[in-house]
Write a structure and sequence with these properties.
The complex is a heterodimer. By secondary structure, chain A is of the alpha/beta class. Helix content of chain A is 40%, strand content 12%. Chain A has 3 domains: 221 residues, NADH-ubiquinone oxidoreductase 51kDa subunit (Rossmann fold); 86 residues, Ubiquitin-like (UB roll), CATH 3.10.20; 85 residues, de novo design (two linked rop proteins), CATH 1.20.1440. Classes of the chains: A alpha/beta, B alpha+beta.
Chain lengths: 438, 159
């Protein structure tokens, strides 16, 4: 149903191809929301965002306006940090925003900065987005030249700078406290909380800080321009607005799809995504990249509304909506192993359960895939994974446990086929599984 | 010396932050660009620039995967073979690329031109298989396309 008229809040390049250009952005109302916000009190801006029910799009889904309201206005120095680290396996939505509609992100970040009276905005991009960062610097310079950034912005008496900061290849820096450490020039390892980033002592350079995802902030200009009530007309009662779904894996038309909350996997994968190559059957879906629980596909799953609340009913999360699709040929033991290798590599090493747990999970998964495992290995890895949950400083420990726990729970037969006489041995090329004796 | 050669760039970086230490990641990129890798000399210079101990700078260089603590080939090819890419044949692509260049994982060709290794998700899952060459993305690849790129890179380097 490609002719369906889905509302567009973020990917406006679909309607206005050159919207990345400053002049085109402004000709289409760009920076009007920021101008309007400057005429409102910071509190009124926060209240509007609160009323819109906008929730964080990075994965956690925390209410954005509530997050902004935690900032103590009595503190003289405050910061906004834009999380553009985008490192979750299967996530590639923020890059498209920064490439195709960068001024909307800058405008959203500036509105947030006004709302908390921030001194500066830092946009932390993953290192691999170096080209994106260089282009974004040019867009920021255009906004400086037009007087939207800098000293005494539009005669408001308030000054704010906007800078990009490039990471250097570490998934963990998408975790907000590790991101702040990294921005301060330290190892990207999570902090002990409290204090939380919004509190004195917990944010960037110890100052109260709002950390928001790129997509989250890109929603803000629409909310200020059109009002919270208008925004809430998009999506469902509890999940307002649009969400960008990153569709990848075994699907004919992979890519980013901006859709209102409440559409179904069937619409996303079959109507928009063009279905599964070769007409194969759909076996499993990871709705939130490597970190969220995998689900076994059936009609009930395919027809469930894609919202924060409905995904919980299937024991998973909507998260960052990085939808990885797997057809009937995929061995979920291999999937568990692949994701485990990711988390083993990306564990920052600070907390023992995560650092050691991912190492041993990886070793045992390799053994199973080589056909050298035993049936008791399944309980062994499930046990290791359970002992990684809820005992680490950040969510990576829980994320790393998910692929093991939920593939075993939802696809036990995929594991069992690797044991006993005639056991399946998945011989992988590349370096995914070292040969026996290595 | 980085301080003289890149004075303008370095000054711009420092202007972003209230604390010099925040510039360490940018300085490491500059050092890597100059020396081809994060060499001991580069570490010392970055430490001086950022008022840090060289040991702290080395720990930063070691933590992040985009800094190389060993010399690499002129073209550093990093193939994403994470789950989403692997579902689209990235493991096979990675294997065939190494075979084509005659290198093992992480190895460099005898002429010093190409280093091949795998990396974790690069955020280009809808355009798999893909690789980054010296941090620039090349997407929707197959062996024919990558062979053409290799021919082009060889020609550019005068080999």
């Amino acid at each position: 149903m490609a002719d369906k008229n889905y509302p567009i809040v973020i990917y406006r390049e679909k309607e206005i191809p050159d919207i990345w250009k400053y002049d085109v952005y402004v000709a289409n109302g760009g920076y009007g929301a920021f101008q309007k916000a400057l005429g409102m009190t910071p509190k009124a801006v926060i209240d509007e965002v609160k009323a819109s029910n906008l929730r964080g799009r990075g994965g956690a889904g925390f209410p954005t306006g509530v997050k902004w309201s935690f900032i103590p206005q009595t503190e003289p120095v405050k910061y906004v940090v834009v999380n553009a680290d985008e490192s979750e396996t299967g996530t590639f939505k923020d890059r498209q925003i920064m490439e195709n509609n960068p001024h909307q992100l800058i405008e959203g970040a500036l509105i947030c900065a006004w709302a908390i009276q921030a001194k500066a905005v830092y946009i932390y991009l993953r290192g691999e987005y170096m080209d994106v960062s260089n282009a974004l610097d040019e867009r920021i310079n255009e906004a400086y030249a037009a007087g939207w950034i800098g000293k005494d912005i539009q005669g408001s008496g308030w000054s704010c700078d906007v800078y990009t900061h490039l990471g250097a290849g570490a998934y963990i820096c998408g975790e907000e406290s590790a991101l702040l450490e990294s921005l301060e020039g330290k190892l990207g390892q999570p902090r002990v909380r409290p204090p939380f980033p919004a509190q004195k002592g917990g944010g960037l350079y110890g100052e109260p800080t709002v950390v928001n995802n790129v997509e989250t902030l890109a929603n803000v200009p629409f909310i200020i321009n059109n009002g919270a009530a208008e925004y809430k007309k998009i999506g469902t009662e509890q999940s307002s607005g649009t969400k960008i779904f990153c569709l990848s894996g075994h699907v004919n038309n992979p890519g980013n799809y901006e859709l209102p909350f409440g559409v179904t996997f069937r619409e996303l994968i079959y109507d928009l995504g063009g279905g599964i190559p070769g007409g194969k059957a759909l076996k499993g879906i990871l709705p939130s990249g490597g970190s969220g629980p995998i689900i076994r596909v059936n009609d009930e799953v395919l027809d469930a509304p894609l919202t924060y609340e409905d995904m919980q009913k299937f024991g998973t999360i909507l998260g960052s909506a990085s939808v990885i699709v797997m057809d009937e040929t995929v061995d979920m033991t291999w999937v568990a192993s692949k994701i485990t290798k990711f988390f083993k590599h990306e564990s920052c090493g600070k907390c023992t359960p995560c650092r050691e747990g991912t190492y041993w999970l990886d070793k045992v998964c390799d053994r199973i895939l080589r056909g050298e495992g035993q049936a008791s290995d399944v309980e062994l890895i499930a046990n290791v994974a359970r002992n990684m949950q809820g005992v680490t400083l950040c969510a990576l420990g829980d994320f790393a446990a998910n692929p093991i726990i939920h593939t075993i729970k939802n696809f036990p037969e995929d594991f069992n086929q690797h044991f006993g006489a005639g056991a399946a041995t998945r011989v992988l090329r590349g370096d995914a599984v070292p040969a026996a004796g290595d | 010396m980085l301080a003289e050669k890149y004075a303008g760039r370095i000054q711009k970086v420092f202007a972003k932050y209230p604390d010099k230490r925040s510039a360490v990641m940018s300085m490491l990129y500059i050092a890597q660009e100059e020396y081809g890798w994060v060499s001991p000399d580069g570490v010392r210079e970055v430490a001086d620039l950022c008022n840090m101990d060289p040991t702290q700078v080395r720990s930063i260089a070691g933590f992040y995967t985009m800094y190389s603590e060993q010399p690499k080939g002129k073209y550093w090819l990093q193939v994403c073979n994470d789950l989403a890419c692997a579902l689209k044949g990235a493991d096979e692509f990675h294997h065939d690329l190494k075979a084509h260049l005659g290198v093992e994982e992480g190895g460099t060709t005898a002429d010093g031109l190409f280093t091949v290794e795998h990396v974790m998700c690069l955020g280009a899952c809808d355009r798999a298989p893909m690789l980054q060459c010296n941090f620039h993305f090349h997407e929707n690849l197959d062996m024919d396309k990558v062979k053409a790129l290799i021919t082009q890179w060889r020609a550019e380097s005068g080999a």
